[in-house]
């Protein structure tokens, strides 16, 4: 069977590309080994799908994509904007709301987005082949030949949208990277992103006691900082602030945590020394932070005695602990729980406007398999929609 376009992967990017190519009158086959299309959409955003971020194409939003070449993503992102996806969502009568920081979530279940995309695919005449393994891909003179578990097919254009390595349990594979290598495209280093951080046994034992506690914090790595919730878990640290910084963190590095954002801790401690001189430092900290956290910080400081007896030097140590608490993760939870994969198909080998492989006519890479990774908060879906849309205009 021959198609104009074959899309590998029925995720966010693949479905968008298929819709757009189908709307242009191209015959399109989408192949996926999973039982359902859009499995990650279904579980995304805690089941509510944070389907875009209204800041994705603003001046600041542009810095919210990580890549060896962050400028690569700008063309697609500026041509297919959050407004365009919002218009599609509205057309399908899907109710949504802004949760925080420009993040748009469905009011109802995330499956509505899948239903919408599947409906659009049907409308565009796209054929979907699920539970289908891709056994071999080769280049012919006029396009591509694929041996699938259920058929042998050919196509003029091949769009690779098989995503990253995150959550192998859900069917994530390295297939897209292998295919890129097979066709001579370069890869950048891949690693888990938007992932909880883990600690060595000693530190973990202490942190474990705080499991379930969440607090607002600024988490820093070098010049990068995120102010969001920080969550202590029985495995280490999680919560949006940690997930965000994890994409910047490298093994061996420490992170710094400001536990009292927008507060002058020095002033607070000096006032406590004056007004409540007979209390222990833990108690003072416990007035502004969860008690168990205050206890841990107090133990780490190991400064017994009443605050009224503290010298300025001692107070400065407490202040540093509150405003610049240094923690050294040993690793991350890895691809098992990472929301995304950083790195991937090297953007130097792709055309920024169309996502086409520069050296292989008819071959395209879109979505997470490409070395473009967004911040938490709808940026990754916006990249999937935008890159899928871009390829769908030309493939
Ligand atoms: P995606 O991974 O969606 O699709 C790839 C498809 O290829 C899958 O259907 C897979 O089965 C198929 N495939 C892989 N290997 C194959 C093979 N060898 N043969 C055949 N098929 C193969 N982002 C966001 O913006 N907002 C959010 O709310 C969330 N929430 C979220 C929660 C969780 C738990 C995770 C893990 C991730 C998120 N994300 C997110 C990230 C978002 O899900 C991700 O960026 C996009 O799904 C990427 O879309 P792609 O289409 O590129 O890959």
TrEMBL record:
The keyword Electron transport does not apply. Residues 4-393 form the RsdA/BaiN/AoA(So)-like Rossmann fold-like domain. Residues 191-340 form the RsdA/BaiN/AoA(So)-like insert domain. Pfam families: HI0933_like, HI0933_like_1st. Keywords: FAD, Flavoprotein. The keyword Cell membrane does not apply. Its cofactor is FAD. NCBIfam families: aminoacetone oxidase family FAD-binding enzyme. This is NAD(P)/FAD-dependent oxidoreductase.
């Amino acid at each position: 069977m021959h198609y104009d376009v074959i899309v590998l992967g029925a995720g966010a990017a693949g479905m968008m590309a298929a819709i757009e190519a189908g709307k242009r009158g191209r015959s399109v086959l989408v192949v996926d080994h999973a039982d359902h299309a859009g499995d990650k959409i279904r579980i995304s955003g805690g089941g509510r799908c944070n389907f875009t971020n209204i800041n994705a194409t603003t001046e600041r939003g542009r810095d919210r994509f990580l890549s060896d070449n962050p400028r690569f993503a700008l063309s697609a992102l500026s041509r297919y904007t959050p407004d365009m996806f919002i218009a599609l969502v509205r057309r399908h009568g899907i109710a949504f709301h802004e949760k925080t920081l420009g993040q748009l979530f469905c009011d109802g279940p995330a499956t509505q987005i899948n239903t919408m995309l599947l409906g659009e695919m049907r409308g565009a005449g796209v054929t979907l082949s699920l539970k289908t393994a891709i056994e071999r891909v080769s280049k012919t003179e006029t396009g591509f030949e694929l041996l699938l578990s259920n058929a042998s097919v050919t196509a003029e254009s091949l769009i690779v949208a098989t995503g990253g390595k995150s959550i192998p349990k859900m069917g994530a594979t390295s297939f897209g990277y292998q295919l890129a290598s097979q066709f001579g495209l370069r890869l950048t280093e891949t690693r888990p992103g938007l992932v909880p951080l883990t600690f060595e046994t000693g530190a973990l034992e202490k942190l474990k006691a705080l499991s379930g506690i969440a607090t607002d914090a600024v988490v820093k790595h070098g010049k990068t900082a995120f102010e969001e919730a920080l969550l202590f878990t029985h495995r280490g640290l999680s919560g949006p602030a940690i997930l965000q910084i994890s994409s910047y963190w490298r093994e061996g590095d420490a992170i710094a945590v400001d536990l009292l954002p927008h507060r002058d801790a020095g002033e607070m401690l000096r006032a406590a020394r004056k007004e409540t001189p007979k209390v222990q430092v833990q108690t003072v900290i416990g007035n502004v932070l969860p008690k168990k956290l205050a206890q841990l910080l107090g133990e780490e400081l190991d400064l017994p005695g009443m605050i009224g007896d503290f010298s300025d030097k001692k107070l400065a140590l407490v202040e540093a602990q509150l405003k610049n608490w240094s923690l050294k993760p040993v690793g991350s939870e890895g691809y098992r729980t990472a929301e995304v994969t950083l790195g991937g198909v090297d953007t130097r080998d792709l055309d920024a406007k169309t996502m086409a492989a520069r050296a292989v006519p008819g071959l395209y890479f879109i979505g997470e398999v490409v070395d473009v990774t967004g911040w938490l908060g709808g940026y990754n879906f916006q990249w999937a929609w935008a890159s899928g849309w871009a390829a769908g205009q030309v493939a």
